[in-house]
Structure formats: C-alpha cells, structure tokens
C-alpha cells in the first residue's frame, strides 16, 4: 500500500498502485518548473498497474479560506492539470530511473481521470455570497474546463471522492 500526505490529509492507495506527489518530485521542482517558467502541478499522480486509468488529483482545503482566495485558487486548477500532463511527457526522458519509469508507466494509461478533492466549511460566515452557491458554480465551471481531458471529472469532499476512487482519504487530527 502506498500512503501519501498532502496538507492535512493522508491518501492510502491499495496494493498494486503507483502514486507520487508529483509537485514534490525533483524532476518537477528542479527541471520542469524552472525551465518552463511558472508551471504548476497537481498534488498527486496515481495509477493501478493492472488498469488503464491515470488519476490526476488536486487537493484543496478551503475551510478557512475567504471567498476571493477560493476563487483565485480554483482558477489555477485547470492549468495545473495541463502542466502536469506536459511534465509527465517530459519526464519520460528524465535522468533518474524512478521518475522516468513512473512517467512512462503513467503515460501508457489510456483513460485520464481528473479529480479535485476539496473541503469546505458551509457553516463559516461568508458575507460576500453564500458558499453553497459559490461551490456549485465553481464545480460547474471546473467540470466544463476539464471536460476535454476527462468528461466525467470528479470534484468533491473526502467522502465523495473515496466513494468513486479506490483510495482512502483520512484527515490528520
């Protein structure tokens, strides 16, 4: 089993899965993002060695964020998916064998799945406009933007994501 930690959450992938915190890899930090300007990456890249899905997972905890911060961060999400795919393609020829092997295996997958794990506090006082309305609007816009890569992109909290993606998400107390 592979366990990765991102922010206040742990992500446990079942046996047979390969997973990386892609934005923390040396290739992405030192080679790709430096040579390509201000490129970013999704937080997790994962795949089941026995299946044809490549999972790109972005993690956001908006429970204490203000509305403008939420909107700004959500505007970056589609670009992160694009940059991650470009980074994976470039990493096919990475100098270190683990990164090269991981990216080549990832690129053999024939089905791309885009996932945004986000957490919101719907009881927090938001004066600009109601959070539930904002979340629904952002979710619709993100799904439209990600549709070219994944027509059935998944956007939701840890319970919603864990019901579809075969992984376990736990909050760190």
Task: Record keyword descriptors for this entry.
173 residues; alpha/beta; five-stranded mixed beta sheet; three-stranded antiparallel beta sheet; 5 helices; 8 strands
Structural overview:
- The protein is of the alpha/beta class and 173 residues long.
- The protein has one domain (2-171).
- 40% of the residues lie in helices and 25% in strands.
- The protein has a 5-stranded mixed β-sheet, with helices on both faces. A 3-stranded antiparallel β-sheet has the order 1-2-8.
- α2 packs parallel to α4 (131-146).
- The longest helix has 25 residues, at 67-91.
Quick summary:
The chain has 173 residues and is an alpha/beta fold. The protein has helices at 26-35, 67-91, 97-107, 131-146, 158-164; strands at 2-6, 9-13, 17-20, 44-48, 53-61, 111-119, 154-156, 168-171.
Helix and strand topology:
Layout: E1 2-6, E2 9-13, E3 17-20, H1 26-35, E4 44-48, E5 53-61, H2 67-91, H3 97-107, E6 111-119, H4 131-146, E7 154-156, H5 158-164, E8 168-171
Parallel strand pairs: 5-6, 6-7
Antiparallel strand pairs: 1-2, 2-8, 3-4, 4-5
Helix pairs in contact: 2-4
Radius of gyration: 16 Å
The share of residues in extended strands comes to 25-35%
The biggest sheet amounts to: 5 strands, mixed
Shape: globular
Ends distance: 21 Å
Give the % helix. Answer: 25-40%
Nearest-integer average pLDDT:
88
Number of domains: 1
Continuous helix count: 5
Decide which structural class fits the backbone.
alpha/beta
Spatially, the strands of the biggest sheet line up as: 3-4-5-6-7
Q: Which residues sit in consecutive blocks of at least 5 with pLDDT less than 50? A: none
Total number of beta strands: 8
């Amino acid at each position: 089993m592979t366990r990765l930690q991102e922010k206040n959450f742990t992500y446990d992938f079942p046996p047979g899965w390969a997973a990386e915190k892609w934005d923390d890899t040396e290739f992405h930090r030192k080679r790709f993002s430096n040579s390509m300007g201000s490129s970013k990456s999704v937080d997790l890249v994962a795949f089941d060695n026995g299946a044809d899905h490549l999972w790109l997972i972005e993690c956001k905890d908006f429970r204490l964020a203000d509305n403008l911060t939420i909107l700004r961060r959500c505007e970056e999400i589609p670009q992160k998916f694009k940059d991650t795919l470009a980074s994976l393609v470039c990493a096919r020829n990475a100098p270190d064998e683990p990164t090269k092997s991981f990216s080549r295996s990832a690129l053999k997958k024939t089905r791309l799945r885009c996932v945004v794990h986000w957490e919101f506090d719907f009881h927090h006082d938001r004066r600009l406009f109601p959070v539930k309305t904002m979340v629904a609007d952002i979710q619709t816009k993100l799904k439209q933007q990600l549709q070219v890569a994944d027509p059935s992109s998944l956007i939701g909290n840890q319970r919603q994501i864990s019901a579809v993606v075969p992984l376990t998400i736990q909050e760190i107390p």
